[in-house]
Amino acid sequence: MTTQAVDILLVEDNPDDAELAIRALRKSNLANHLLHLQDGQEALDFLFNDLNNKPKLVLLDLKMPKVDGIEVLRILKADERTRTIPVVMLTSSKEERDIVETYKLGVNAYIVKPLDFEQFGKAVGQLGLFWLVLNQTPQ
Amino acid sequence: MRFEFKVVIGFIITLSLVIALGFYTYHNNDNQLKASRWVNHTHKVLYHSEQVLSTLTDIETGQRGFCLTGNLDFLIPYSKGKQNIYPQLNQLKRLTHDNSRQYVRVMKLEMLLEKKLAFSDEVVELYKKDPAQSIALVTSLKGKRLMDNIRLTFSDLMAEENYLLERRTIENEDQIAKSNYLFVLMVSFILIILLILFYTIYINLRARKLAEEKLEAAAKDTQDLYDNAPCGYHSLDANGVFLQVNNTMCEWLGYTKEELIGKMKVFDLMNEEGLKSFRENFPLLKEKGMIQNVQFDIFRKNKTSFPVIVNSTAVRDSNGNYLKSRTTTFDYTEQKLANDKITTLNQELEAFTYTVSHDLRSPLRSISGYAQILEEDYSPVLDDEGKRLTNVIIKSAKRMGQLIDDLLNFSQIGRRDLSNHLIDTNTLVSQLVKELKEEETHPLEINIQDLDPCHGDFNMIRQVWYNLVSNAIKYSKKKELIQIEIGSYTVGPEIVYYVKDNGAGFDMQYVHKLFGVFQRLHRINEFEGTGVGLAIVKRIVTRHGGRVWAEAQPDLGASFYFSIPN
Questions:
Q1: What is the tally of structural domains in chain A?
Q2: Chain center to CA of B459
Q3: Is A20 in contact with A120 (CB distance < 8 Å)?
Q4: Given Cys at both, which of A32, A59, B139, B557 links B502, Cβ 3.0 to 4.6 Å?
Q5: What top-level class would CATH report for the domain B419-565?
Q6: pLDDT digits over B21-51, tens only?
Q7: DSSP letter at B93?
């Protein structure tokens, strides 16, 4: 897995949600260099293992077992070396305090997973396009 | 007139009268003394007159006896009388010196006496030489005339004195009668004034006593209220030492007043946290004169503690310096337990809704997502019934998602803090209506009257308007032209807003269900909706202190009203 350059890192514990997200990204042709990890600890291990090959985008689920999305976000944004990686939160709820807290920690975008799969596909597709193709990150 | 003034005036009048009476009595006594002296004087004049006359008679008798008998013994009273008569006459002269008329009479008497004595001497001397010649001299009646004249003059003198005596006696009696009358008058007057003065003082004293008793009772009441009120009272000096404390507080703490007052400081009864709060708030009290609702735990004598809420104001001297506090203390134990319970419940509720919002939506997403995949990727192998069934799954999942969202929204409205701003209802509603009109394709006519502004939470009030107006549109769609009227009016202390439509209306017998959660009066295939919109309206309006109600008739439209306190 790590031998190949990763463009999008999807951190999601729910396999159904992960499959739907990957399907939506694939539809937009963005799933070629995608890595799916199932919890926050795995994600942190991966990201700090090879700091020279950082992903172009991290899609992070908020609620996960062990290390949750907010914790991962806090660690990434607190570290000089990982601060510039764009992080987009994917979450089931539009709970006000979650939105406020993640923005305080420096999240780049916050997406509530829509129930409508078509809408979800569109949202994830646009998101991937923006961060992978249009956005310029400092190298 | 003030009481003190009355008393002083009364006292001055009485004193003046007593002094006047004193002077008058003195003057009167003096007059009487003088009068009695005069009476005495008259008696003396009469006495001396009679003495002179008597002495003269003695001389006359001596002379006659000698002339009749030639016996020389008769000449003894004669010579003695001559010796005495002049001193006696001089005495009379002195006594009548002040009365010119009487004095003239006495002078005349003196002259007549001298003549009479000279005549008598002549008779006596002649008798010694020639008794016949002497008798002839006596018979010449010269002596008798002189004697008659003397008697007459005496008679005048004594008559005058008697007259004077009588006059003086009458005058004196008059004077005494008059002075008695005046004396009685003055004493009566003094008595009346004294009575008035006594009455005034008595009334005043009685009023004072009553007022004192009243004051005492009031003070007792106040003290009872202070001591036994159902809250703690105490006062602290500038160093936090107890100056006063009531019984209730003492009972709570387990200390006696004697143990607390002047000996203990309030922070002897505090833990670290309380001390911190005290160090912040006590200077504030001294500076600003007031602290409110300060909470801390306070130790009893037995080292257990309980939570209190303290309110305090500062007592200052005339220069504005802090003297002491007036502090009320409330035992907060039960409220704190209740508050803690509410906090716990709220936390549980929050955890619950948080879980609902995350975990319930997740499988829904899978249902919806996979059904859509089925629809997209497997439509060639699905027959029409299969496609319809897939569609039902997708629609149901979406509806459930909507229900969850609405329910969460509803529960959040109950928990969110209310802001309070002046809301320009005209602008709010016109903008909202503009947005709704842009989305709507059905012919639509909305008539907005002038709307009163109100105070409240802008976002929540906007939600109320959004729900009511969008409902009005939704439930009128079966009419060719949707007609909606929006307006407001003020009744007493509240502003009433209304939204009237010409839509489906409802049967008034179900009106009680209208504002309940998930309550719907129409079938889902008639009008879409989750049945939360009006429940949200009711909750928001109730939180603002207002009311909601509705009137309708089936197929003739509905009117929804809500009020906001003015």
A1: 1
A2: 52
A3: yes
A4: B557
A5: alpha beta
A6: 889 889 888 888 888 888 888 888 889 888 8
A7: H
* Residues of B within an 8 Å Cβ radius of A: 354, 357-359, 361-366, 368-370, 372-373, 397-398, 401, 408, 412
Measured in angstroms, the CA of B531 and the nearest CA of chain A are apart by 20
Q: Looking at domain B232-331, which of 3.30.450.20, 1.10.1660.10, 2.60.120.200, 3.90.1150.10 is its CATH number?
A: 3.30.450.20
Task: Pick A138 or B85 by higher pLDDT.
Answer: B85
> Who contacts B343 (Cβ-Cβ below 8 Å, separation ≥6)?
none
Provide the CATH number for the domain around residue A33: 3.40.50.2300
Structure tokens belonging to residue B290: 């007031």
Residue A13: domain span: 8-133
ipTM of the complex: 0.79
Tokens of B400: 């459930």
Cβ partners under 8 Å of residue A70, min gap 6: A62, A98, A101, A102, A105
Mean pLDDT of chain B: 89
Decide if A3 is inside a domain.
no
Domain for residue A139, yes or no? Answer: no
Best mutation target among A92, A113, A122 (most B Cβ atoms within 10 Å) is A92
Residues of chain B where predicted confidence (pLDDT) is lower than 70: none
Gap between the Cα atoms of B63 and B122, Å rounded: 10
Radius of gyration of chain B, Cα coordinates, nearest whole angstrom: 66
Write the residue in A20, A92, A118 that is nearest to B361 by C-beta.
Answer: A92
- Among all residues of chain B, which has the CA nearest to that of A91? B358
Domain B3-197 has CATH 2.40.128: no
A117/B368 CB distance under 8 A = yes
| pLDDT tens digits along B54-106 | 998 888 888 888 888 888 888 888 888 888 888 988 988 898 888 888 899 88
Q: Which residues contact B272 (CB under 8 A, 6 or more apart)?
A: none
